[in-house]
Every structure is written in C-alpha cells, then in structure tokens.
Amino acid sequence: MNEEEISVRDEKADNSRYRKKTAIKFLVVLVVAGAVLLIANLILDRAGKSSVSVNEEATETVLLFEPDYEYDIFSDEDYTELERWINYTYGGMTTRILTEEDARKTGRYAEFFFSYFDALIHGKYENFDAFFTGEYIKKHGETGRFTMQQIYDISVEYLTSETDEETGEIYHVYRVAFAIRRNNGTVFRYTESNKTLPYLYQLIESAEDGEIRINLIKR
Known about the structure:
With 219 residues, the protein is an alpha+beta fold. It has one domain: Nuclear Transport Factor 2, Chain: A. The chain has five helices and six strands; from the N terminus they run ααββαααββββ. The protein has helices spanning 3-44, 77-80, 100-106, 108-122, 134-140, and strands spanning 86-90, 93-97, 150-163, 170-181, 197-205, 212-218. It has a six-stranded mixed sheet, with helices on both faces. β5 and β6 form a beta hairpin. Mean pLDDT is 81; it is low at 3-13 and 18-58.
C-alpha cells in the first residue's frame, strides 16, 4: 500500500470519527432540549393546571433570618453591590433589564416580571396578590405582609406557550431563577439564603382583558 492510499484511508477515518462526535453532541443537545420542553409541557397540561406551592416542594429545614419590617435594604451596601437586574431571555436573545423603561421596551411579559420582582424587593405587599390568579390564591391563601426582599441574580427565560381553544386563554411557561440574601421567610419560607434556585412559572393571559397572572410556581 503506497503513501497516497494510506493518507486517503486516514482521512476517511478522521472524517468518520468527526461525524460520530458531531452526531453524539447533537443527540445530547436534543435530549436536554427535549427534557426541558417535556417539563414545560407537563406544566401546561390541563390536568395539572392547579397551582403548586413552592413551599410544598421543600423537604429540608432552612435557616431563616429574623424579619425586620422597618429595615431599608437599599441602605445595605452588601446588597446594593450585588447584580440586581433581570436577565430576560426570549428566542435565544438575552436583554438586561434594570429599569422600568428597560422592561417597557422589551415587552409586556418583561414588564410583568419587572413589576413582580420590584414589588418583592420593595416590600409592596398590599397589592401583591394581584400578580396571581384566583385559583392560585384560593389554593395558597393571601400572601400577607412581607419585608423588603434582598433578591438578586435574577434570570427569566421563556420556554413555551399554548392556547386553550375553549377559553382563548394563553398559557406561558418561563424558567425563573433568583437568589435571596438574608432570607427571612416572609415570602419564601423554604428558600436558602444566597443560593440561586430555578423555578418554573406558568402565566395565564386572559382572553377577555389580556391581563397576565401567575397560575403556578413549581420548583
């Protein structure tokens, strides 16, 4: 066998190995993407439409700090120096949202999440339950008074949507992650401090007035 034949054979072998590696990588991507969509679709399933409390998912004891309803978290430099913007991802594009104007330019759902986290961070408990559907409130009760929440490292990623043909309501699923510094449990009783945790949020857009509300939060 001459050198030219050996070179051709080696080249074919290299190409074969490359194709196999590429196929394996592609398969891994498909499996991961499929798993995410499967979870999202399970949440959209009408049989599982009832709300699931984040607190009901907890199986371990979490150390909580003593609530101080008068404490202004913006006077704490250790908190204000943290990354407090929202990384909002839709269609593979991520936008950094720090202000209400940023959210407005990004879209209605970005505005919704900005308002939601803004209410949590500023301790706006009076009208906080307006973010949730009646079904969610009925299952979990009213939120009640809570302190300013030292939330940071926020990311919101759109996953999938589905329209109910009978009611016209649109169900959206987002993957939401965030951390809480010095969590006192007045909102998230089973969330460990300084640990970024992912959740799946199901939002419902009303067919009548277009209002957006949270129907389910699953950890």
